[in-house]
Amino acid sequence: MAKANNQVEESAVSEQQEPQDQRKFIDTHTDKDGNESTVEHQVADFNDEQKNVFNKLEILVTQDNKLTAQYEFQHEQNQILSNHYVAELKKLLSSGEDQEPEVVSDGEAEKEAK
Question: Above 50 in pLDDT, residue 32?
Fold first, then answer.
């Protein structure tokens, strides 16, 4: 009996249709008066060439989103590090206020003195 059930399940799985492509392309148009209208296209209805172009577009959008996320993450890390170094520098400068400030010259005054 178990074999019969397995055979039925296997045949049911093999008879299932391939999942239909649910992706959509939404095209926005603006007329002379500035009114926007949208047209929704089902990718499943595209021919092979249209699907190929849509797939390329989808890859580019995905890559762009990934790059944006990476940039934002890197920017956040840089801000955290920058804030840390500013705090560290302020701490070092405030601890050095007890000492006499070091006089820094540009070298021109030293040459004139000789």
Answer: yes
